[in-house]
Amino acid sequence: MTELTRPNVKPARPHFSSGPCAKPPGWEAVRLATASLGRSHRSKIGKARLQLAIDLTREILKVPDTHRIGIVPGSDTGAFEMAMWTMLGARGVTTVAWESFGEGWVTDAVKQLKIDPIVVRADYGQLPDLTTIDQTTDVLFTWNGTTSGVRVPDGEWISDAREGLTFADATSGVFAYDLPWDKLDVTTFSWQKVLGGEGAHGVIILGPRAVERLESYTPAWPLPKIFRLVSKGKLTEGVFKGETINTPSMLAVEDVIFALEWAKDLGGLSGLIARSNANAAALDKIVSDRPWLGHLAADPATRSTTSVCLTVEGADEALVKKFAGLLEAEHAAYDIAGYRDAPPGLRIWCGATVDTADVVALGPWLDWAWAQVAA
């Protein structure tokens, strides 16, 4: 393919960003419900819409009634830090990191909370041996490494007899994998990943053991108001019934309700997983057909089906920037440069809100951009 040859077909929706991600197919702002806008989030309609978002989340993810679901401030970061600040310190802690966000939780534990955790690491593209983790400690990990494309394949490594709590940052994995809720004591995510929702809001899911920890343990450090989940020694149940700690965007709530109802119409979790798997398979074929492309995650068993991270032959930061810039200028692909802390390469979102036909159409455009940068 020469420098001047452009493919004839572009992705209809060239939104391949790993967050905020593509909106669900058929999304238009005019299709969002608006009755809650301009109303207090504590009004009858406000609380009802927040509760609906929680109820749809439970239904689609098949979260058992034993687990509470709350909408909290600060996106996934806020939700995970809320869990860390309120529950850690009761026993030893193990932090597991194989990409940027996992390293962020290590930094919080070491430099902010100063709890001297055991740190288990692996390089980008690899997964550490999870079976060696001491489960008498609390364990912090990312289910899906958004910046490395490496995911946890299952929950079999988590013991049913564990003494510590499991804290799973599942923000780019939830709604794309069937998570083992009996193995997860704390799970967090944000709407702007697999659902293609808006940012600034996080979701925290607490199992019974996490609630027990909150009600029986008081951390040594002060807690900001937006982190407080307990009042007078008891869980603040209202947080898990649509009574948010601070003022949420009702427009963002209506946006995610649209996405959740779209997911329900697909058949729920199984439909979402099928779309994501089809997208990842289409991208994998593109990679396997091109010797200059590769997967950063070498093992298919631990390779993400959402945030797929690719290596590019001879790539450095400048090449990747030029590569991604060429495609953005052509409106063929937006935001596909790898994460700034990751090895230079591409990152292409394959979550359920992306259409497989758009992934297929991306292949020739990758060839076209490669012809430019390789020259």
Name its key features.
14 strands, globular, single chain, three-stranded antiparallel β-sheet, 32% helix, alpha/beta, seven-stranded mixed β-sheet, 375 residues
TL;DR?
This protein is an alpha/beta fold. It has helices at 44-61, 75-87, 100-112, 208-216, 250-265, 269-288, 317-329, 356-374; strands at residues 68-73, 93-97, 118-121, 138-142, 144-145, 150-151, 166-169, 186-190, 201-206, 230-231, 234-235, 293-295, 307-312, 346-349. Strand 2, helix 3 (100-112) and strand 3 form a beta-alpha-beta unit.
Describe this structure as you would to a colleague:
This protein has helices at 44-61, 75-87, 100-112, 208-216, 250-265, 269-288, 317-329, 356-374; strands spanning 68-73, 93-97, 118-121, 138-142, 144-145, 150-151, 166-169, 186-190, 201-206, 230-231, 234-235, 293-295, 307-312, 346-349. Helices cover 32% and strands 15% of the residues. Helix 6 runs parallel beside helix 8 and helix 7 (317-329) crosses helix 8 (356-374). With 375 residues, the chain is of the alpha/beta class.
